Amino acid sequence: MTRIGSTDLDVLPLNLGGNVFGWTADREQSFAVLDGFAAAGGSFIDTADVYSQWVPGNSGGESETIIGEWMTARRNRDDVVIATKVGQAAAQPGTSRAAVRAAIDGSLRRLGTDHVDLYYAHIDDQDTPLEETVAALGEVVAQGKARYVAASNFTADRLAKALAIADELGVARFVALQPHYNLVHRDEYEGELQDLAVAEDLAVLPYWSLASGFLTGKYRDGTTVDSQRAGGAARYLDDRGRAVLSALDAVAAETGASVTSVALAWLRAQPGIAAPIASARTPEQLPDLIAGATLELTPDQVRTLSEA
């Protein structure tokens, strides 16, 4: 188990991504994945009000609704840690005070609960003063609608300012950070953002941990994969991507683990990382993700992957 930053939330170091619920996984499939995740000891589920707005016929909130119906059916709200977000939904765009107030109530209604455990600013809304965003999120915590607040897609400079503002206002400060980070996408997090997260004891929960599926090893030269994410994954298949796959294959052979598990284990070995986010469309995809939450790589194996 790992603790989410300075909170009292202890979770398996794997954050199940809910972006596929209501998109590539229907309600029945989603329930099966959630049941499998819980049975394997998982409890930390990530979603957002915008999921899955991009699907024709959807309006956003589909993922939250499915998760809420699952928790109601299983009567397990107290056993799970729920994170959701505000900022990207068409109905409540941005993180103004009005948007946050409307969005949190909508999320709670869809999730069928009176609070979420972690509530993110999904974006750094440049059109809203940072003071307003921080204060609005602080109100959500003060009202008991969220236990903690967090940031996604913030730069180091803006994140530092948000933390300072929270301290000045005396409101809840961010306890976690959700950046785009994986073995083939590193520049955004490594450096200033990583240093700040470690210094401030923020739990880092990277999204796209498997690079849209590329780091599962399915996407290789001469291979066609029938997946809605194939286009996103295929863009990594260049000389650097091939070198990373070769290194993953080598470490997977040494450990007896899958390429997927090794890629997640590499992430967990990086400073600040608490629980990588990874999604599963079917229960059959879960074992490799769960294994990645417990696999420990040697320093030499981590170095081999990093250098690739």
UniProtKB/TrEMBL annotation:
Source organism superkingdom: Bacteria
InterPro entries from the UniProt entry: AKR_Detox_Biosynth, NAD(P)_OxRdtase_dom_sf, NADP_OxRdtase_dom
Residue span, NADP-dependent oxidoreductase domain: 14-307
SUPFAM superfamilies in UniProt: NAD(P)-linked oxidoreductase (SSF51430)
Record keywords, A-Z: Oxidoreductase
TM regions (residue ranges): none
One GO CC term, this protein: cytosol
GO molecular function, one term: oxidoreductase activity
Pfam family, one: Aldo_ket_red
Protein name: Aldo/keto reductase
Gene source species: Cellulomonas denverensis
